[in-house]
Amino acid sequence: MDEQPAGCATCGTTADPEDPGALVAWVRGVEDGRVVWTCPACSRRFLRSIEGKLDSQWW
Ligand SMILES: [Zn+2]
């Protein structure tokens, strides 16, 4: 079962099983055929760094 985050692939934090609403914010991705989960904090940081790179390349 890969439908529940086992832990953040970036920082290793685990989702709070007593807070199902928090799971919605987790980002599900696939790396090398494996399902990886990223916690809300890391996904925000990740997105921001991608946007930063895009911006610097684009402009
Ligand atoms: Zn994380």
Cα(first) to Cα(last) distance is 43 Å
Largest sheet: 2 strands, antiparallel
SSE-based structural type: alpha+beta
Measured as a percent range, the helix fraction is 25-40%
Beta-strand residue percentage: 15-25%
Q: Tell me how many strands there are.
A: 2
Domains, number:
1
Structural notes for this entry:
With 59 residues, this protein is an alpha+beta fold. The chain has one domain. Helix content is 39%, strand content 17%. The chain contains 2 helices and 2 strands, in the order αββα. Strands 1-2 form a two-stranded antiparallel ribbon. The termini are far apart. The mean pLDDT is 80.
Notable traits:
59 residues, 2 helices, globular, binds zinc ion
Give the helices and strands, then pairings.
Blueprint: H1 20-23, E1 27-31, E2 34-38, H2 40-58
Antiparallel strand pairs: 1-2
Bound molecules: zinc ion.
A few lines on this structure:
It contains 2 helices and 2 strands. The protein has helices at residues 20-23, 40-58, and strands at 27-31, 34-38. It has a two-stranded antiparallel sheet with strand order 1-2.
